[in-house]
Amino acid sequence: MPKQVLVTGGAGFIGSNFVRYLLQTDPEVTIINLDALTYAGSLENLNDLPDPARHHFIHGDICDRPLVDRLFHEYAIDTVVHFAAESHVDRSILGPGQFIQTNIIGTFTLLEAARQAWLTEKTVPIEQVRFHHVSTDEVFGSLAPEDPAFTESTPYAPRSPYSASKAASDHLVRAYHHTYGLPVTLSNCSNNYGPYQYPEKLIPLMILNALHGKDLPVYGDGKQVRDWLYVVDHCEAIWRVVTGGQSGETYNIGGGNQPTNLEVVHTLCDILDELAPTSPHRPHRNLIRFVQDRPGHDRRYAMDITKIGHELGWRPRMSLTTGLLETVRWYLDHPDWIEAVRKGSDLQKWLERNYAQRGGNP
Ligand code: NAD
Ligand code: TYD
Question: Does residue 250 lie within any of the structural domains?
Answer without folding.
Answer: yes
